[in-house]
Each structure stands twice: as C-alpha cells, then as structure tokens.
Amino acid sequence: MKTFALRAVAAAALALSLGAPAFAAAPSADHPAVQRALAHLGGVAFQKAHGTGRDGFVARDLVVDADGAEHVRFDRTFAGLRVIGGDLVVHSRGDGSFRGVSQTLRDLIQIDLKPVVFAQAAQREALAQFGAKNGAVQSAELVVYAREGKPQLAWDVRVNGVREDGTPSEAHLIVAATDKVLLDRWDDIQTIDDVGTGKTLYSGNVSLHDQLSGSTYTLKDSTRGNHYVVSMNNGTSTETTYTATDNIWGNNAESSSETVAADAAYGQNMTWDYYKNTFGRSGIANDGAGARSRVHYSSNYDNAYWSDSCFCMTYGDGSTLNPLVSLDVAGHEMTHGVTSRTANLTYSRESGGLNEATSDIMGTMVEYYANNASDTPDYLIGEELYNTTGKALRYMYQPSKDGASADCWYTGLKRLDVHYSSGPANHFYYMLAEGTTAGSPSKTCKSGNTKTATGTGTLVGIGRDKAAKIWYRALTVYMTSSTVYSGARTATISAATDLYGAASTEVAAVKAAWSAILVN
After folding, report:
1. Which residues carry out catalysis?
2. 177, 239, 285, 484: which could form a disulfide with 115 (CB 3.0–4.6 Å)?
3. Between β-strands 189-191 and 304-307, what pairing exists: parallel, antiparallel or unpaired?
C-alpha cells in the first residue's frame, strides 16, 4: 500500500436519512465512518481521489443514510497547503465497502512548491485588482489552486473593504504564485442581488416567539436555537436588540421600526421550520444553533446579504426597492449559510451560479412551505420588493426576463455575475418541479440558445417537494466546492437514484430537465 498522509479533524456533521432522520454528532478524528473513509483513500480509492502520497484530509461533514451508507466530506491539503477545489466526498455502502468518490479535481497535483511571486507582491496585486473602497489586506496564504485546469501554486489574498452600494466586502483574490495573474475571486459576503408577526410588512399578522424577562419582551426565539433580531439603526456597526414592554411587534407599516424586524423574525422561523421538517436539519449549521438577523442596515441600502463571519443575515431598508425583508429573501440568505456548511460552492463562475440558484430554489421552497395568504408563493424572487405587479429580482421560469440572466447553459456562462449565471439552474428546477407544455409557461433551450430560450419542448414535472429533496441531497452528499453545471447534472442524477431508483420516473425527469437547458 502506498504511504499516504491522512489526518482527520472533527467538523460540523450532518445526517440525512432516506427514511427516518438519523442525526449524527460531530465526528471525532477516530469516528468509525471517518476512519473507514480514510482507509478507502489510502487504498481502493487512492487513484480515484488522485492521491499523491502528500495529501492530508480534514473531515468536515458526515451524512449517514437510513441503510447505513456513509458519505464523508473532506477538505484536502497537499504538502501542508490548502487545496482550493480539492475537496471530495467518499461514499461507503452500508457494509462499509467503498462505493465511490465525488470531486471536481481532475488531475494529480504535481507542482513546484517554491513561489516565484512572494506574498508582498501578491498582496499589492490583489489590492490593485480589488476594485472596492477602503481595501485592506487581511492575510495572504500560499495554496494550491485546483478549481479549473491543472493545479498550480497560488496566493489566497483576503481583502476587506466596502462595495460601491455600501455592502461590506470580504474578498478572496487568488493570485498565481508564478506570474501574478488573477486566477479567481469571490466574496464571503453573499448577497441577494445588487438591488433590493408580529405585524409584518409583507406577510400580514403572524405568530412570533419572543422571550419575557420581568416586564421586558425580547424578540428572540428559544424554540428555534435562540435566533434573534437586531436593529442596525441605519448604521453599519452598532446593533440594538429589539425589546419592548409588550409582545406586539410592528404595525404592518414602515412607520414602526419593529415592522421589518417582524418580517425578518418570521423569515427566520419559516426557513428554520422548512429545513427541520423537510430534511431533518436543525438550523443552518445543523447544530441546533440559531443565527441573527440585522435590519435597518445603513441608509437607503438596496440589498441584503448573508455573512459567514458573523453568522447572520443583514437587510437594508431599500431606496429604489422596498425593505428587503420578504420571505423568499430571508430563505435565500439563510440558505447561503447551509451551502457554506455543506458543498461550500465557491462564489464565482459556474459554482457561484449554482450557489445563488440553491438559495433561490430553497428561498422559493420556504415561501411555498409558509403558504402565507399575504405573500402568495410563486417562482419569482423578491417580488414583494417592487410596487409593480409581476416585477421581481429574478424569474425562475424565464430567467432572461430580468434582462441579464441566462436561460440556458453555454460556454461563456462562467463569465457572468453569479446572480445571472444562476439562471439555467433556476430554469432547470422550475421545469423539473412544474414541467412545461410546448414551451409554455417556460421555454426550453435549443441548440444555439444562450441567454434567451426559444424552444417549445414539453416536460412533465415531478412536483416541488420531490425536486427539492433531490437538489438538497445533491448539495449535501454529491456536490463539492467547484461543482460546475455538468457536475450538478451528475450530482442530481445520483441523488434522484438514491431517493427513487435508477429506473424511476424522477431520474428520467432530472435528465430531461437538464437536457432542456443544454446540459447533457
């Protein structure tokens, strides 16, 4: 057996059951499932995983099926350097035997570990490329970059600053360690887009949990991981917890500061309940802990965003948009957190589009789960943010309707902003769930189509609930950080096969829906 450097570190563990949910505690380094997966990596899976003998693996996720099958997600290092795009999932059968590996790494890592470009020069280049205000380098880490093409030595330079619209930026700029070429970039601040009960603004009067201490109520929910809501007071740093002498939050209008706080709390609740009751997931990180929502961020801020660093959602009051606290926006933002703790789809190129689409898909499913009469569920994203009927941030049944998103996959998709490269996946999901007849209401893609679909194909949908279960299992079991559209097709086919069988109508529908957006 080849000498193989293996290491396992406990991280957030997830459990997904095809039958009754089986929640697994965070695996220790000697967890049997982790040890079995590591043994596979050192043996039968060595070549499949593109092992070199200089690899290290950090277990950060575990999914255990009802039949005992195990799926252990690992981050990879090479000669002690973090490998961006090297993460993988090792699949074992219920008897512990090796089943397969999910990964995006295509080549052995064979590189010179001596940088030609040193850290200081890489930092200067990153700052020059940053393109936002008040950029400040936080760190520069030598890594192996393996998201596309052959692995190469690079610097992951982290730069913090502020975007033009006021959104904080926590950017990664990947600078080649051979020639200072900018290989990739993404931001850990993940937004809904570049725009935009308690008595809520959008969802009517809904029930909210709060906490009573003495004669003071606090907008904090002890039944859902103690998640809570704070006001940013139209600033960007000071947080004020919502407290009151009664338990009525808001007045259904913007004249009360509490109204949008009520929307944010309701959005947290419905998102928590959807993931818990549909997938057995206990909170964003599946650890039972709640997050917090920050409302009234900055002044006239037309955006909302999720930040992993603060484990929180942040909402602006809007300027051209209405306050960005609608239910599908809340579900969208918190799903970014779910994605970061599972497949961790990198927020650039095609994987970034899939990241955004995942949030649109699950934000939409949260809206359908809530089934609130004041906010009729649909396949529009952020429609409540406009005063014009039918206008929205994005349109899942026809992504190109926003004027920038693509309906279909094509080779140039990775050059689009991630909010627009999400279009084909949103389009896929709509047709998988709802179907279309002779191109109505959703046109299929035909050869040569890119941003606008013109086909008149017919597909039979399998329903929203089945489509969501397939996507979630693909996300949590098969996708990795650099999954592209072709990989998403493979992942969802595998997920549908697990759930419904290889010869099922559902698997056939998944294949047909991907083909309908030109992913074959």
Report:
1. 333, 419
2. 177
3. antiparallel
